[in-house]
Design a protein that fits this description.
308 residues; alpha/beta; four-stranded antiparallel β-sheet; 24% strand
């Protein structure tokens, strides 16, 4: 059984107009998203800004109400949970937010920030709570005495590690990481990503990684879904997406990845221009009348694309 299953998820925002503020249209942020996430894997949800990936992630964790569709965690539909079952879901699914500067309360010490989930779900003595928080702070590579400091006393990478420690305190089954390193320097990005891989092995975590950076997605993910205008245009393993992209939009994204080898840049530029010409030729048939991807069609056991 899949750990997480998303089936035809839709999130619409009404557009209101007139004196009576009647709904005249909808912004379809997510428009029929479906995928499965297996235990222990890292699934990458990637796409350009505004494609709906962050909205989808926030809906899965319960911060946004879905307009339609279903989200299942280990077979349980989350919008039907209540009482202890809902509390257990909130323990099992945690989130690492994009901005380490705004996701941490500047008025609270690190001790209080990381201990907040423990105070919500467990009853620990102050001594047990302090010992557990210091242990998690040490595991994410910070000094145990850091728990008495405030967020402004840390660098961006250290703040993101504090956010990761907070997400780990309840030993979750799934962590949704929304652009976890986009606001960090490149060298710090590598440190945080490698650290996330290390703790995934240690805690047997499952990640849903949301990003627009295909380099990070390639480094971190086992399977990948490419979003465009609220829908998936292609889904497959890392090799499927980066070695054999089928949808013209996916090929365009892959061709845009910079090549670090200066001797291959001319060939890369020519390949990018060729893909751009193909995109202009195939754009009308690759999308429906609304400019959205067609339904996914299975190509192989692991690979699907939105082709006619």
């Amino acid at each position: 059984m899949a750990l997480l299953r998303v089936d035809q998820l839709k999130v619409y925002y009404p557009v209101r107009s007139g004196l009576l503020r009647r709904t005249v249209d909808y912004v379809k942020a997510v428009d029929g998203l479906s995928f499965e996430l297996q235990h222990g894997e890292t699934y990458g949800l990637v796409g350009e800004s505004g494609c709906g990936k962050t909205t989808a992630g926030r809906t899965m964790i319960g911060l946004i109400r879905a307009t339609a569709g279903e989200i299942h965690l280990e077979g349980d539909r989350i919008d039907r949970l209540s009482g202890r079952a809902l509390s257990r879901y909130r323990r099992d699914v945690q989130m690492i937010f994009q901005d380490p500067y705004s996701s941490l309360n500047p008025r609270k010490r690190v001790l209080d920030i990381i201990a907040e989930p423990l105070r919500n779900f467990e009853r620990l003595s102050p001594q047990e709570e302090r010992r557990k928080v210091r242990d998690f702070v040490e595991r994410v590579g910070l000094h145990p005495d850091s728990v008495y400091k405030y967020p402004h006393e840390f660098s961006g990478g250290q703040r993101q590690r504090i956010g990761i420690a907070r997400a780990l305190t309840l030993n979750p089954k799934l962590i949704i990481a929304d652009e976890p390193v986009s606001s960090l320097d490149v060298s710090v990005q590598a440190q945080v990503l490698n650290f996330m891989k290390d703790i995934q092995r240690e805690f047997r975590l499952t990640y849903l990684l949301i990003s627009h950076d295909l380099g990070i997605i390639r480094h971190m993910c086992d399977r990948i879904g490419i979003m465009y205008r609220g829908r998936l245009v292609e889904e497959g393993t890392r090799d499927d997406i980066f070695e054999q992209p089928q949808h013209i939009y996916a090929r365009r994204l892959v061709a845009a990845i910079p090549n670090p080898n200066p001797r291959q840049r001319d060939a890369q530029r020519e390949r990018r221009l060729q893909v751009e010409r193909e995109y202009e030729q195939l754009r009308e048939q690759s999308f429906d009348r609304e400019g959205k991807p067609h339904p996914l069609k299975r190509l192989t056991e692991s690979h699907s694309a939105a082709l006619l």
